[in-house]
Each structure stands twice: as C-alpha cells, then as structure tokens.
Design goal:
- With about 350 residues, this protein is an all-alpha fold.
- Among the domains are: about 35 residues; about 90 residues, no CATH class.
- The protein is built from 10 helices and no strands.
- The protein is elongated and about 220 Å long.
Length: about 350
C-alpha cells in the first residue's frame, strides 16, 4: 500500500516537472513571437515617424511661402487702399444720391398707391356699368329677336305677294299692248273720219250751186241732205297708256279679271262649291294669297282638291299660271287627303 502511494506520488512529481518544462519552453517560443511582432511594429512606426517628419518639413516650407505671399498681398492691399482713397468721396456722394432717389421713389410709390385706391373705386363703378350694359344687351337681344321675327313674317308676306306682283306685271303688259292696239285703231278711225268729213264737205260744196236755181228758198240743202247723210261729230280721244300705278288693282279685283278673262280655266269640280269651307292653308304649298285665289275659283274644301282629275289640275294650273307645276310639286292632293282625314276622321 505504501508502495503504491509512493509510486503515485512519484508519477505526480514527474508529471509536474514535465509540465513545468513544457510550459517554460512554450512561454519562450511565445515571447519570441511577441518580440518579433513588436520589432516589426517598431519598424513600421519608425517609418511613419520619418514620413511625418518629412511632411512637417514640407509644411514648414509651405508656411514660409504662405507668409511671403501674405506679406505681398498686404502690400498690394495697402497700395489698393491708397489708390481707393480718392474714390471714397465719390462713394459718399453716390450714397447721398441713392438716398435722394430712394426718397423720391418712395414718394412716387405713395402717390401711385393713392391712385391705385382711386382706380379700385373706378373698378367698382366699371363693374356696375358692366352689369347695366349686360342688362341692356339682353334687352337689345330680345328686341332684336322680336324684330327678326317681324322681319321674317314680312319676308314671308313678301314672298306670298311676289306672285301678285308677277300677275300685276303681266296684266300691265297686256293692258299696255291692248292700249297700243286701241290707240292705233283710234288713229285709223280719226283719219277715216277726217277723210269722210272732207269728202262730205266737198260734196256739199259741189251740190249747192247745182240745186241753187232748182229748189225754192229754204230747201237748198234738202238734196244734199238726202244724198249724203251727215255723220255725227262724236269726239274721239286717245286713251292714255295705263301705268303700273293705275293698273295696280287690288288682288280680289285682279282675280276677278283673271277669272273673267279665262272662263274655261275653272275646273268642273269648282263650278259647284262645297258648302263646307276648310282652311286650305293647312295644305303644304298653299298660302293666304293662294287660298283666296282658289276660293275665288270656287275651291273651298279639302274634298274638292283631293278629287282633282288631270283636267282639273291642268285648268287650275292655267288659272295660276305664275306657279306652273306647283300642284304636283307640293302634292296638294295628298295633303288634302291627309287634312280631310284629320278633320273629318274618315278614310278615303
């Protein structure tokens, strides 16, 4: 037992000795490595120190150069100050002028501000006037619309009166022609009358000496009276040529004259007027003037127009010769059928 304990203690002692030796060796190796590292760091730091010293030398040189340049610049500045001393008085004068101009500008600004206030009041007045002008413009527009409506109505009436002017012109032309014919005829008759009067006068003068010794007193001209019967001295005067004003008869009388001048143009259906009088203006193409013309021809109802034959169309067209082809173009027959169906609710 003691032997085993002695061996264990010996082994422990040997192990501790070996550990100390190994630790010492390892510590020596580590210290050497650290020393080498420290040497390298010292070398690097020495190199950095040398570089810093070189930089310091360069900076000292640059400082010297800057000091020299500063001295030169100070000298130049002093020279420039000496050169600028004469201009200081001008600068003072310019400052005074600037102050004066600024004061004047301030006065002008205050004056302009007062004018701006007055302009704002004028602007308010202008707005009020604009509202008044707009109101007047609206009134003028309404009046202009009413006037345009009246003008359109007058134009429509003028368009309806144009056929009458054409008829009046045609009638005036016919009357002028007839007046010229009558004048020529009257001239011929007056010449014949003068010739007959001269002839009768010469025959009377020739018969007076022949019958002077044969007939008793008081009966000298009996033979002349029996031979040549005296012609009554009827005064023949030339009729004046009718003018447009004299022939401008009313439409009703003109239609009566046209109907009297063309008695054959009245259609057979219009000879017996229908007792029911319709508003023919509802048919497209028939206005107030045309309606009066048709009523004068005896056509007063839709039924008469929708029963027009070809002969009736030709007769009415001849009666209203100012508008040829109007019955077919405006389809009076179809319009009359439509209006008759609307009014009387009967199918044709």
């Amino acid at each position: 037992m003691t032997y085993l304990i002695g061996q264990i203690v010996l082994c422990l002692l040997l192990a501790s000795v070996l550990g100390l030796v190994v630790g010492w060796l390892l510590r020596g190796v580590r210290c050497r490595a650290d020393i080498n590292l420290l040497k390298k760091e010292l070398q690097a730091r020495g190199e950095k120190i040398e570089q810093c010293e070189q930089r310091i030398v360069a900076l000292q040189r640059s400082m010297k150069e800057l000091e020299n340049s500063c001295k030169q610049e100070q000298q130049l500045a002093q020279e420039r100050i000496q050169q600028l001393e004469p201009y200081q008085a001008e600068a003072v004068w310019l400052r005074q002028e600037l102050d004066n101009t600024t004061s004047q500008k301030n006065k002008q600004i205050t004056h302009l501000s007062t004018q701006l206030g007055s302009l704002q009041s004028l602007k308010h007045d202008i707005k009020v006037n604009e509202t008044i002008i707009q109101r007047l413009e609206s009134q003028l527009r309404t009046q202009a619309a009413a006037k345009n409506k009246q003008v359109n109505e007058l134009r429509f009436q003028l368009g309806e009166m144009q056929p009458l002017t054409g008829q009046l012109k045609a009638k005036d032309h016919e009357l002028r022609q007839t007046a010229a014919k009558h004048k020529n005829r009257i001239d011929q008759l007056t010449q014949q009358l003068h010739q007959l009067q001269a002839r009768t006068k010469s025959e009377r003068e020739a018969l007076i000496p022949q019958t002077a010794g044969q007939n008793p007193p008081g009966q000298e001209l009996s033979g002349a009276k029996t031979v040549v019967a005296p012609m009554p001295a009827t005064p023949i005067t030339a009729q004046p040529t009718p003018s447009v004003e004299s022939t401008a008869t009313p439409p009703d009388t003109l239609k009566k004259q046209n109907s009297a001048a063309h008695p054959r143009t009245t259609p057979q259906s219009a000879l017996s007027a229908s007792p029911d009088k319709d508003d023919l203006k509802k048919i497209y193409g028939i206005g107030p003037v045309m309606e009066r013309t048709l009523n004068h021809l005896g056509i007063t109802s839709f039924k008469q127009i929708m029963e027009f034959t070809r002969d009736d169309v030709e007769r009415v067209t001849a009666a209203i010769k100012v508008f040829p082809g109007r019955i077919e173009r405006d389809d009076w027959i179809g319009g009359a059928k439509k209006e008759h169906r609307k009014k009387y609710a009967t199918k044709i």
